[in-house]
Amino acid sequence: MSIKQDAVADNKVAEFPHTESAAVADIVHDDAYFRERRAEYELRQAEIRKTMSMALVLGLIFTALFWISFHNPEIYLVKAETLTIINSGYNAIILLTIPFLLGVVGAISRLLLSGVRVIQEVSLVIGSGLMAAFSWVGIKSGVLMAVIAPHLEKQGLAEPAQISSSPSDFYTLMLVAVFVGMFSTNLYLFISQRVDQLSQKASDKRR
């Protein structure tokens, strides 16, 4: 009888640490769960406070604008100078559409000659078109002409003031836009190929 009691006692003593470790694990799990829920709650509260702060700031701004507009209605009057600038900007955008498209044509031509798929270099085509448009801005503004005027006079070409004033000069500007688009694309392709070659050489040396 005593032997059986000793065996039962041993079993109880052996089971006690397992029960205690399970209880500790449950406590740790509950604590981790509580911390996670607490972090989520604090994050939601921070987002709510941020949203309320933004709403308050926007409300104050609109209130100030309404008060200023109510007491100073003349601030919304558009001056003639502003309308002139807006009109000039609109006309410039319409005008620069032509060199942009011509630059795109030049870039696409260069990509086709290089065997590169145009669909993979859409950003390059758009960038080349913008460069062509910027070239027209430089010509129309007179900045580019002021730089190259001495060279034009030495070569006996047209005066800077006469550029783009005749049909033949317009076609010259068209060619400039196409060449700028092609040159921009060619420059990018050259630099890209050079970088790839240097990277390949560096990787070969490491091997």
What does this structure look like?
- It is a single chain.
- The protein is mainly α.
- 86% of the residues lie in helices and 0% in strands.
- It folds into 2 domains: 1-77; 80-201, no CATH class.
- The chain has helices spanning 2-71, 80-114, 122-141, 143-155, 167-206.
- Helix 2 packs across helix 3.
- The chain starts with a helix and ends with a helix.
Number of helical stretches of at least 4 residues:
5
Helix content: over 70%
Largest β sheet strand count, sense and barrel closure: none
Number of strands: 0
Q: Uncertain spans, ≥5 residues at pLDDT below 50?
A: 12-16
Q: Rg from C-alpha positions? A: 37 Å
| Helix-strand string | HHHHH
| Percent of residues in β-strands | under 5%
Q: What descriptive keywords fit this protein?
A:
2 domains, mainly alpha, 5 helices, 0% strand, 207 residues, flat
Task: Write a compact overview of the structure shown.
With 207 residues, the protein is mainly α. It is built from five helices and no strands.
Summarize the helices and strands and which ones pair or pack.
Blueprint: H1 2-71, H2 80-114, H3 122-141, H4 143-155, H5 167-206
Helix pairs in contact: 2-3, 2-5, 3-5
